[in-house]
Specification:
heterodimer; A: 377 residues; alpha+beta; OB fold (Dihydrolipoamide Acetyltransferase, E2P); six-stranded mixed sheet; five-stranded antiparallel sheet; B: MetI-like fold
Chain lengths: 377, 220
């Protein structure tokens, strides 16, 4: 079973999205608010009709603008968990789930609804109404209701956004366990990258209704296709440089960054002298010891900020004292303490060549960095 | 006590409430959820009976129902009777002047149902009708009940429009409110007092009921 869709429209929110999700796969749609994530889910469920495109699931066409097919939501068999759950407030948890069991004979519905509520660990709360349940419990009722329909696709619209951190962790763990038993496509809309990385097999980045890149979360974070994707996935180390020369014999392209030469993997598409954006994940920035000086791509920086949290320290250091050249990296909090990485301290950092990725120049990113570098540090 | 007038009033009130119920639900849902051209004008028109002097409303209804109007002529051709000064004419007028009382509370009730809830019902497999019966009606019923009670009570008490359109024909158009006026004119104070007290008590209980419905925390 595979869910595939192409969705296009101009208004009210522009869409030009390609969605593809295999059975048993969890696809996360990420992007800033207003990027059309929820609208895409609504199109898949039949709650919104795009101008053109198609939606197919498991060999069945749910929507096709050219063939004039537009199945109503009742016939699409999707499980939909709404952002605020949309439980029926006048019904008990059990009745809420039974509503979605219309495909079963009446006599079997109650037993099945109990079974689903038990699967999401809500035994004993069958008779409670949504108003008498906590946020996390409500979310689980909503999940049980969505799954009770025996859907051909499960759609989750920011299902963790309305609960507190602690509950969120519990619910995340539960969903990770639950999805092992599901062989349908699951699409999760979220603006939380951590959540997406934890849950998703694949991630699709959206901007203004356009799908920019789809890849496994780790691959997408390590190799963004554009500066825009890097920015939308909250990559802290995104900069502008100039191509100095290509060194194919060393599989390298050398760029100039803030008057400092840096070696990146060989990328002959960028002409010598041209401006490029480049990105390095925080993991690609290494804090060097005294005896490790002289490695390739070493820069001197001054620590501007060091935030320790649960044994990890997130550090920002400025190269040449410039705000537009702020490198972010992480290390153990104890390591940071031992090496005296405190604001004002001078550190040597290595930017791992293989972790650096050159990207086509993006005018917005260039402009932002220019503005930043004009600010006094 | 003018029992004939009272029973006529009850009949008129019940018929008005029952006939308005399906139409108002349909109209209130549309006004609450759909957006269409002329919506503002339509909403204003529905509210007019609240602010117009009953005599003005009655005057226009009299014109609209009269023997020279298309509606009056059609009714005359169908039944052989005149629409004005008849129970049917009074009922039609009553349906019109009760529109704001029926539509307003229902519109508010339907508007308070989040769209997500109906969508959740659809994706759960409920048809539009099932969604209406199992989700919308139970959630909107305090508003619907309030609308029915207000319509019923308001019909019992309406005076100006009834007098203009219905006149004062015993058993046909003489409602309890008109009967009270008659008794006062005839210096029959005790009869007027009895009927007035009864209307007062009934209206008070009805309005209290409506407020109870509207209060949060009432278990639905």
């Amino acid at each position: 079973m595979k869910l595939e869709a192409r969705l296009e429209q101009v208004a009210p929110i522009p869409l030009a999205a390609d969605i593809s999700c295999d059975g048993g796969e969890l696809l996360a749609l990420v992007g800033p608010s207003g990027s059309g994530k929820s609208t895409i889910l609504r199109c898949l469920a039949g709650l919104h009709r795009p101008t053109s495109g198609y939606v197919r699931c498991g060999g069945e066409t749910w929507f096709d603008a050219t063939g004039a097919v537009d199945m109503p939501p009742q016939r699409r068999r999707v499980g939909f968990v709404f952002q605020h759950y949309a439980l029926f407030p006048h019904m008990s948890a059990l009745d809420n789930v039974m509503v979605a069991l219309g495909h079963l004979p009446v006599a079997e519905r109650e037993a099945k609804a109990r079974e689903w509520l038990a699967r999401v660990n809500l035994e004993g709360l069958f008779a409670r109404r949504p108003g008498e349940l906590s946020g996390g419990q409500q979310q689980r009722v909503a999940l049980a209701r969505a799954l009770a329909r025996e859907p051909q696709a499960l759609l989750l619209d920011e299902p963790f956004s309305a609960v507190d951190q602690v509950t969120r962790r519990k619910l995340l763990r539960q969903l990770i366990q639950l999805r092992r038993s599901l062989d349908i496509p699951i699409i999760l809309v979220t603006h939380d990258l951590e959540e997406a990385s934890l849950l998703a097999d694949r991630m699709t980045v959206l901007h203004h209704g356009r799908t920019l890149q789809s890849a496994a979360p780790a691959a997408l974070l390590a190799q963004p296709a554009s500066a825009l994707v890097a920015r939308l996935t909250d990559q802290p180390n995104l900069f502008v440089g100039k191509v100095l020369r290509h060194l194919p014999e060393f599989d390298a392209t050398e760029i100039d960054w803030q008057g400092q030469p840096l070696q990146a993997p060989h990328m002959p598409v960028f002409a010598v002298g041209a401006a490029v954006c480049w990105v390095v994940p925080a993991e690609g920035v290494i804090l060097l010891r005294e005896d490790q000086q002289g490695r390739e791509n070493t820069v001197q920086a001054r620590v501007a900020e060091s935030l320790a949290w649960r044994g990890h320290a997130s550090i920002t250091a400025l190269v040449g004292g410039r705000r537009g050249a702020a490198l972010s990296f992480a290390t153990g909090a104890s390591v940071a303490a031992r090496r005296g990485v405190i604001p004002g301290a001078s550190v040597s950092l290595q930017l791992q060549k293989t972790a650096i990725r050159l990207l086509p120049p993006d005018p917005t990113v260039i402009e932002q960095l220019r503005l930043l570098s004009e600010l006094p540090s | 006590m003018d029992w004939q007038a009272l029973s006529l009033s009850l009949k008129l009130a019940a018929a008005t409430a029952l006939l308005l119920l399906p139409f108002s639900i349909w109209l209130a849902r549309r006004l609450a959820w759909a957006q269409f051209r002329g919506q503002g004008a339509l909403e204003a028109a529905i509210m007019l009976p609240l602010v117009l002097p009953p005599t003005v409303l009655g005057y226009y209804l009299l014109l609209g129902f009269g023997g020279a109007s298309p509606l009056g002529l059609a009714y005359q051709a169908l039944t052989g009777r005149s629409l004005v000064f008849s129970f049917d004419g009074l009922l039609l007028a009553s349906l019109i002047f009760n529109l704001p009382f029926a539509v307003q509370p229902m519109q508010r009730a339907f508007a308070s149902i989040p769209r997500e809830l109906r969508e959740a019902a659809w994706v759960s497999g409920l048809s539009r009708w099932q969604t209406f019966l199992r989700i919308e009606l139970p959630l909107a019923w305090p508003g619907i009940a309030a609308a029915l009670v207000l319509t019923f009570t308001h019909t019992l008490g309406e005076f100006g429009v009834v007098l203009m359109v219905g006149g004062n024909m015993p058993g046909e158009t003489k409602t309890v409110a008109i009967a009270i006026y008659d008794q006062v004119q005839a210096f029959n104070d005790s009869a007027a007092a009895g009927m007035s007290a009864m209307l007062l008590a009934f209206s008070f209980v009805a309005v209290m009921f409506v407020y109870r419905l509207g209060r949060p925390g009432v278990r639905r």
